[in-house]
Amino acid sequence: MSEALLEVNHLKKYFPVTQGLLGRTVGHVKAVDDISIRLEPGETFGLVGESGSGKSTVGRTILRLTEKTDGEVKFKGVDIHSLSPSEMRLLRPRMQLIFQDPYSALNPRVRVGDAIGEALLDHGLCPKSEVRGLVLEALEACGLSSYHIDRFPHEFSGGQRQRIGIARALILNPDLIIADEPVSALDVSIQAQIINLFSRLQQSKGLTYLFISHDLSVVEHLCTRIGVMYLGSMVETAARDELFRQPLHPYTKALLSAVPVPIPKLKRERIVLKGDIPSPANPPSGCKFHTRCPFAVDVCAAEIPVFRDAGGGHFVACHLA
Amino acid sequence: MKEIMKIDGLSTVFFTDEGKVRAVDDISFRVREGETVCIVGESGCGKSVTAMSIMGLVEEPGGKVSGGSIDFLGEDLLRLDKNSLRAIRGHEIAMIFQEPMSSLNPVIKIGEQIMEPLIVHQKMKKKAARQRAVELISQVGISRAEQIADSYPHELSGGMLQRIMIAIAISCSPKLLIADEPTTALDVTIQAQILDMLREFKESSGMSMMLITHDLGVVAEMADYVIVMYSGKIVEEGEVVQLFQNPKHPYTRGLLKSKPVMGQRQDELYSIPGQVPNPLELASSCYFHDRCEHCMPVCRTRHPGLKEVGGGQKAACWLYEEAEVHV
Amino acid sequence: MAADSKLTKLQRPQAKLQKSSLFRQSLRKLMHNKLAVSGFGVVVFMFVLCFIGPFFSPYTDNKINMAMMNKAPNLTHWLGTDALGRDILTRVMQAGRISLTVGLASMVLSVLLGALLGAIAGYYRGLADQIIMRVADLLMTIPGLPLLFIFGALLSEWKIPTDYRMYIVMLMLSIVNWPGLARMVRGQMLSLREREFMQAAVVLGLRDRRKLFGHLLPNIVPLLIVMATLNIGGAILSESVLSFFGLGVMPPTPTWGNMIDAANNMIDFQDHPWLWIPPGLSIFATVIAINIFGDGLRDVLDPKQKR
Fold first, then answer.
1. Which chain A residues touch B235 with a CB distance below 8 Å?
2. What is the four-CA torsion angle of A73, A78, A82, A86, rounded to 10 degrees?
3. Do B155 and B34 share a structural domain?
């Protein structure tokens, strides 16, 4: 097997829950609880889950926006959580993040051109005289025009702002782009434009994506491999077609059947889950999904299922699958 | 079927620093008894403003309903005085919003918030109202109803709160329920629960529903009749199967094609180029013309009217009026 | 994207002309606010009157003229004369110079102090934050006016030369005013730090210097401008109060406050209203105008209002 671009091994991120005046720690929110992901260069891994599944925290912990609790994150063989702040800073341009909300991810008082070009300057990646040219190139690549360079973020629409965010990441020629729900704040017609931009850029620049989303139809469109998270744990990983054709975990099945399809009067078999997602501060025992699982048996509440290969790189954590 | 609500030539404007915005511009439609009408469109198309106008939530000086009529069971809501409007609102027309958290009062117990309309509109006694509130909570699929009635909004999840909102909305058995993006803030598995519940209620009580959403999947699942809005105008409307199978307006077609559909992966998604026009700079042209692949000279100069295009479907597009134009 | 590029081609010529500038956009919005513009007009008028006006007055030497004591407004002395026969109009203008200078200078000083300390506290947090904010808290627990009175009384006790008192009053006002500003700036810093664009700056691997000066400060400047403007009014008021009680700038250097003090008895108050109405009105008009203008600025610049 070739060297992985990104290897996440048994990553854990617990947030302490404090109580009282003195901030005594009374428990932990296990936002990410033993997650392993391996990304080969050039692939798109889709991380799917509902709110509270910890998918965004995975992205942020990989980028070291928050410190891990346990486990390791290896980027090109380097354990990034052991790097010093200055080493980390030098590595940053190699892995970039696209935010969900393009409104808040751009500084309202910084011109678009400066926002895109400043990291190049700050890292001394190119001479000052060439920055403007490169910014224009990045703008063009993301479907924006040259006259946009001197404008401020509030003069753009949501879709355009997301393009600016992509240009800002792209100009650094990163190896890995982590996209955290990049299209969920956008309208349908704009969503399609941005999704296409993602796939076009991947083809032309050989980018690797970690694509975090709750929208299965978008993930199906863009990703080559997909991981499904529930309450901080990975419940299933498989190649795209395999996952959509033959989901093994009941949660994946329910998720797939819950997505509304724009075909009226379509009769589908739907697995409607009972109840709400439990609090990650107090997850259920055994298999975390057993409280909502329509197929749960006694063993599910007692034992944590092993995340195992069900054949052909299709991993699943379920006692019954 | 009997018509519950008939909207004619409704126009709503907002006044901003930069000028007047026609958020809803001369739209007409009707809602029949037991029918679910979906208004679909992208942000800023005026779908929510339509609902706000019906509920009388557009207030001066920010904006005002500038024309048209909203006929609800024979009474024009726009001409009613405050008191009669209040009697209808929340009683015969109920509304649920996208953000349940912000529509509930954070310092009042859930149970009391459900009791309030019962006491006000149905003149119930406190004890009876309480009993009814608990019934309603269990009716919207929440177990431990007694306990939930005594809790505060922040103690519940988004999905639970939306159920509570629905409980409040249906508490007075309204004839019409307006739901503005009721599931947009929720996860898919919760969305499925809520949509199922709404459908069941509609069927068992025979109420009509006006559902506002941007999600074509939700439309397909819920709607009987669909209205597509763009920049404050209705661009197409029709019966749901008809409209999804045979969309007439280029915008509707583009919208349907650009949504990735599970199980129908393509290598490249169709996308509508460009973006929604600035509502301050709307000219007399068709508002969609600069994004339309069928744009003709007439599209740049005049706005098309909504015309019957067969099968009970209506579209506002010059493509279907060619004959008339050339005469 | 064909239609897209068509669109941009259409817009290009016009777009090239106007390079967008946040300053110009804000200015345009401000011009719409009639009240703020008139407030600004009054402020400018007061400045022009006080700093240029005296050059056209024949009475700038402030000679004591016993023959002209307490004369009511007339053609030679438009606003009358005071107990020593000095021209009131000239003295109001000269006093305005001092009062406005004290207001401006103490504002600049307190904004510099407040912004710097607030920014340090908010950006570095930890120990620096603790020390700065505890000092600020301490200063804020003591009511401002009594504190100024004590300072003023001490100054008199120590026999500070009256020429220096003006500068010491500025310093005193700044010391009383900076904690509020520092708190504001710190709060703003803390909330900005949590904003997503600051996370984006981390992901881009930007240096601390750029994060501070390129991203945080530009977002604080509008708030500072508003606070600074409103602060001038407050400073002018405080100075007037101090001078009125004879604890600020001392006569013969005129300020609006000590001019009113000159009418501090029933006879002058009732019989010679021209002694106290002009300086009183000046304080009133200036402070109100500055506050109205400041409010207008806040509406335009406050990032919370920004879409």
1. none
2. -120
3. no
Note whether A113 and A135 are within 8 A (CB).
Answer: yes
For residue B52, what is the enclosing H or E element? helix B47-54
Instruction: Catalogue all structural domains in chain C, each as residue range(s) with its CATH number.
Output: 114-301 (1.10.3720.10)
Q: Which residues of C touch B258 (CB under 8 A)?
A: none
More confident residue, C76 or B162: B162
Query: What is the reported pLDDT for C277?
Result: 85
Q: C7, B17: Cβ pair inside 8 Å? A: no
CB proximity list for C134: less than 8 A, separation 6 or greater: none
Residues B67 and B198 reside in one and the same domain: yes
Residues B119 and B247 in one domain: no
Nearest-Cα distance to chain A for C65, in Å, is: 59
Which tokens go with A310? 């069900």
Contacts of A87 (CB under 8 A, 6+ apart): none
Nearest to A5 by CA among A80, A69, A82: A80
Within 8 A of C202 by CB-CB distance, chain A residues are: 65, 92
- Return the residue in C11, C16, C197 with the most chain A beta carbons within 10 A, the one to mutate for interface testing: C197
Helix axes B158-170, B126-139, angle to 10 degrees: 130
Strand, coil or helix: what is B42? coil
Residues A136/A146, Cβ–Cβ less than 8 Å = yes
Residue B38 region by backbone torsions, left for phi larger than 0, else alpha for psi between -120 and 50, else beta: beta
Q: Give ipTM to 2 decimals.
A: 0.86
Walk across the sheet containing A308-309 and list its strands.
Answer: A95-98, A176-180, A208-213, A44-48, A225-230, A233-239, A315-316, A308-309
Task: State residue A96 phi and psi, 5-degree precision.
Answer: -120, 160
Taking each helix axis from N to C end, the angle separating B110-121 and B126-139, rounded to the nearest 10 degrees, works out to 120
Cα–Cα distance for residue pair B205/B199, rounded to 1 Å? 10
Q: Which residues of chain A fall below pLDDT 70?
A: 1-2
Whether residue B45 is found in the same domain as residue B76: yes
C-alpha span between A96 and A100 (Å, rounded): 13
Global confidence as pTM: 0.83
Q: Chain C interface, mutation test: which of B278, B290, B295, most C Cβ atoms within 10 Å?
A: B290
Residue A48 to residues A116, A241, A318, C72: CA-CA distances in angstroms? 29, 15, 17, 85
